[in-house]
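tool_log.txt
---
The assistant was asked to compare two proteins side by side. It first ran the structure predictor on the initial sequence, then on the second. Raw inputs and outputs are pasted verbatim so the downstream comparison step can read them without reformatting.
(1)
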Amino acid sequence: QVQLVESGGGLVQAGGSLRLSCVASGRTFRNYAMGWYRQAPGKERELVARYSRSGGSTYYADGVKGRFTISRDNAKNTIYLQMNSLKPEDTAIYYCNLDPLGGGNYWGQGTQVTVSS
């Protein structure tokens, strides 16, 4: 099994910044995609940023390009999401996801991000 624990969410004013962290523990994989999704009230969960399975490339949703940056510390089994210039529309629960090659899809419990106008 895999455990993903997010932290770093909170309440921030528009224009502010937050840094989310996700620590992975348990089973390890050789090839996996890992990243961040979010779900706003009344909306479907959407991909925000992700490392590819090879780890060689990253993807960002159009609405966060230039404002959010995904990074990782392999020694700590941790990925981060640096969120700058936050907007009220970024308000959502942010989930860490690990998607290994060959099956299985793991989620953290989520961390709330609220951006006030």
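(2)
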Amino acid sequence: QVRLVESGGGLVQTGGSLTLSCAVPGSLFPLTAAEWNRQSPGNQREFVAKSTSDGPPVYGDSLKGRFTNSVDNAKNVVYLKMNSVKPEETSVYYCDVYCSDRKYYWGRGTQVNVTS
């Protein structure tokens, strides 16, 4: 089964920055869409950001301007740049992609802990 591999999570202070990476097998490119979601214990999965092949990225409420989702087609990596992070954004961050084969692929997530 094809799986994506997220990395870059860890400990970050409130107001700091962190960049998450999602390694995607080259065979899945070109991507139709690349998306990040997050989930913390006891909460539902929350939409973070989405990039598509035919439009500008979209972001969850209060994230636009602080988070940036991008795709590096040369390196086969999807990035999520997070700035001015908040303690309530402590979560497991998941990457998933939708490909030209009309299938979704996803990873196991990477933990982000924002300290106050």
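---
observation on (2): The radius of gyration is 14 Å. The chain has a mean pLDDT of 95.
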